[in-house]
Amino acid sequence: ASNEDGFFFQFFPEINDSEGHPSSSHQTLKGTSKWATSLENLLEDPEGVKRFREFLKKEFSEENVLFWLACEEFKKTQGKKQMQEKAKEIYMTFLSSKASSQVNVEGQSRLNETILETPHPLMFQKLQDQIFNLMKYDSYSRFLKSDIFLNHKKSEEQEENSPEAQTAAKRASRIYNT
Q1: What is the pTM of this model?
Q2: Superfamily of chain region 35-154
Q3: Mind listing the pLDDT tens digit for each residue in 156-172?
Q4: Over the stretch 18-65, which tens digit does the pLDDT of each residue have?
Q5: What are phi and psi of 119, to 5 degrees?
Q6: Which of 103, 146, 101 is nearest to 127 (CA)?
Q7: Measured on CA atoms in the order 96, 98, 101, 102, is the torsion positive or negative?
Q8: What would the DSSP string read from start to end of 9-67?
Q9: Which of 159, 144, 11, 80 lies closest to 168, judged by CA?
């Protein structure tokens, strides 16, 4: 992780690379099959986010997903002071003309720090939607064809077809077929 990452996670510690497990384990689709159904599903899975970031890094557009994640986190921010701090951080990191990880959004030239004076949870929503659509109709479809995705899918399939998984499945089917 670069210094920029450390700086970013200092303000958004909720967004990290740690091994997270999706809480919705009751859903039938998981892993790559779930990621392939929609960008929303991919972004809900910490492992999916990790792989997507890896892919976007190679495409030099990781800032898009980082901006989207920061906006999601920002919506949950409580208190005007915290909101102002995080809004400023998002602005300085992604939106200002001097931003270190500038995202490309419509109306960028008209954006300035005055938007930070009256922060509200959905203040970045329009910009976040633009970036979401950019990812959805551009990088997401390429991600599904990428080696990062396909190799992860292959290793998942190998795990499912491993002898241990087979015997567990057979044991389970014996239990239910009594």
Answers
A1: 0.74
A2: Regulator of G-protein Signalling 4, domain 2 (1.10.167.10)
A3: 999 888 777 666 556 55
A4: 444 444 444 467 899 999 999 999 999 999 999 999 999 999 999 999
A5: -70, 145
A6: 103
A7: positive
A8: HHH-TTS--S----S-TTSS--HHHHHTT-HHHHHHSHHHHHHHHHHHHHTT-HHHHHH
A9: 159
Residue 4 token pair: 């920029």
Q: How many CB atoms lie within 10 A of CB 137?
A: 10
| Rounded distance between C-alpha atoms, residue 132 and residue 129, angstroms | 5
Sketch the domain layout of the chain as residue ranges.
35-154
Rounded CA Rg of the chain:
19
The token duo for 94 is 């992604």
